[in-house]
Design a protein that fits this description.
The structure holds two protein chains of two kinds. By secondary structure, chain A is an alpha+beta fold. In chain A, about 30% of the residues lie in helices and about 35% in strands. Helix content of chain B is about 40%, strand content about 20%. The chains are: A alpha+beta, B alpha/beta.
Chain lengths: ~160, ~210
C-alpha cells in the first residue's frame, strides 16, 4: 500500500503540554488511555472519533499530543479536565499548538525550565519533618518523612525560611 | 477590577501553601485569589482576600457569624440550602456569594431567588470542580444546573463568580482553560469576563440610588 500524497492526508495539529508536578513519571501509554477516556467522557464517541487524540512524543516534562485540525479547542478542554493518570495526581498545562512536531520541539528547547538538581535534604514545615523532592526557582515540593503519610506538599522557599 | 478565582483552599485545608498558590495563580493569569480562612495579603503580585464559607447553619447563626466577622473584611459565602433558606440568606446583609447551588435541590434557586440576588447584589458561584474532576451523572447534573442558572442570569442580571475550589495547585486551571470549561455550559466570552470580575462587583461599597445635593 502506497502512502497518500500530502494533499490527501488528514490535516493534523500538535499540542505541546507540560505535566505538573515536575518529576512525575508517566507512562506514554497510560497517558494516552487517560486522554482517550477523558475525551470520550466529555464529548462522547462521535466527537472523540473526530478529535482522534494520540500521544506522539514524551520528553521529560513535555508531551506532544496529536489531534485533527480544527479540534484543538475541544482537546484543550479535555486536557483541563484531567487530574489523575493511573494513581498519580497530575495537571496537564498546554504550552503551544502547532502544525508540525518540529516547531514544537524548537519551542520545547526555548521554554527553558530552570530546575535545580533534586536536592534530597530535610526541612521542617508546620513542626513536621519533610524531605525536599523538587526545587524550581521559588517553588519547592516536599514529601513528609516516614512510611505512613507520604503526601506531597507544594510550598515556596519563603514558607520554609519562615519556619 | 481584577481577574479573580473566587475560592481556593490553601494549606492546611489543601496541600499547597497560600504563597505557592499565589505563584501558580500568577502564571495561570489570575490577579487575585479568595483563600478560605487565610489572612489577607499580597504575594508575588497576587492579592489575597480572606474567604469565609458558612455551611450547615441556621440563618440566625449566619447573621451572628457575619456580625462577628464584620471587621475582617472577608468575602462571605454561604452554602445554599432549600428555597426558603436561600431567600433568607440572600436578604441577609453582609452575604456576598451563594455557593453549592449545583448540589442543592431542584427548586432551591428559582426566579424569585434570582431576582432577590440581583436586588441585593449577591453573587451565585459557578464551582468548576464538578466539571473538572466530576464524571458521568455528577458532571451532567452540574452542567444542567449551571445552564439553568445562566438562563436566570440573562433575565435578572445577578452577579456570577467563578471558582475552582482548588485544594492543590494541581487543581488550579489557567484563565484560558477555565474559559474553555465555562463554554461547556453555554457561557460566552463577555459572560466569562464579567464572571471573573464578579468578586469586585459584590465587594464594592454600595452606591446610593438617590444622590442628595
Amino acid at each position: 500500500m502506497s502512502t497518500r500524497p500530502p494533499t490527501l492526508r488528514e490535516k493534523r495539529r500538535y499540542l505541546l503540554v507540560t505535566i505538573d508536578p515536575p518529576g512525575t513519571e508517566i507512562n506514554q501509554k497510560d497517558l494516552y488511555y487517560t486522554i482517550s477516556d477523558a475525551t470520550t467522557q466529555l464529548w462522547g464517541d462521535v466527537v472523540a472519533a473526530l478529535i482522534m487524540p494520540a500521544v506522539v512524543a514524551s520528553e521529560g516534562q513535555f508531551v506532544i499530543i496529536r489531534c485533527l485540525r480544527g479540534t484543538e479547542h475541544e482537546l484543550a478542554t479535555v486536557l483541563s479536565t484531567i487530574s489523575l493518570c493511573r494513581d498519580s495526581r497530575i495537571a496537564l498545562r498546554m504550552v503551544a499548538a502547532s502544525g508540525t512536531i518540529d516547531s514544537l520541539r524548537d519551542r520545547m528547547r526555548r521554554v527553558k525550565i530552570d530546575r535545580e538538581e533534586i536536592c534530597l535534604r530535610d526541612c521542617t514545615f508546620d513542626k513536621k519533618l519533610y524531605q525536599i523532592s523538587q526545587c524550581n526557582g521559588q517553588k519547592v515540593d516536599v514529601i513528609e518523612k516516614g512510611f505512613k503519610n507520604t503526601n506531597r506538599l507544594f510550598l515556596t522557599k519563603e514558607d520554609l525560611e519562615e519556619l | 477590577m481584577k481577574i479573580t478565582d473566587a475560592c481556593v483552599y490553601p494549606y492546611p485545608c489543601g496541600d499547597s501553601s497560600v504563597r505557592r498558590m499565589a505563584l501558580e495563580a500568577k502564571s495561570l493569569g489570575f490577579e487575585r485569589l479568595v483563600a478560605n480562612d487565610i489572612p489577607p495579603g499580597e504575594f508575588y503580585g497576587i492579592e489575597i482576600y480572606t474567604g469565609l464559607l458558612i455551611r450547615d447553619t441556621a440563618v440566625r447563626d449566619i447573621i451572628t457569624r457575619i456580625k462577628r466577622e464584620r471587621n475582617n473584611h472577608a468575602v462571605v459565602s454561604v452554602h445554599a440550602g432549600d428555597n426558603g433558606f436561600n431567600r433568607a440568606v440572600i436578604s441577609t446583609k453582609g452575604v456576598h456569594i451563594l455557593r453549592g447551588i449545583q448540589s442543592s435541590d431542584k427548586y432551591a434557586f428559582d426566579h424569585v431567588v434570582a431576582r432577590m440576588a440581583a436586588d441585593h447584589r449577591v453573587a451565585v458561584d459557578i464551582d468548576l470542580s464538578p466539571l473538572i474532576s466530576g464524571r458521568g451523572i455528577t458532571r451532567q447534573r452540574a452542567m444542567h444546573r449551571y445552564r439553568d442558572i445562566l438562563v436566570l442570569e440573562q433575565r435578572f442580571e445577578f452577579p456570577i463568580v467563578i471558582s475552582s475550589h482548588a485544594r492543590s495547585i494541581l487543581e488550579m486551571r489557567a484563565v484560558r482553560e477555565i474559559a474553555g470549561i465555562c463554554s461547556l455550559v453555554g457561557m460566552d466570552t463577555p459572560d466569562i469576563e464579567k464572571s471573573f470580575l464578579g468578586v469586585d462587583t459584590v465587594t464594592a461599597p454600595e452606591e446610593t440610588a438617590v444622590k442628595v445635593i
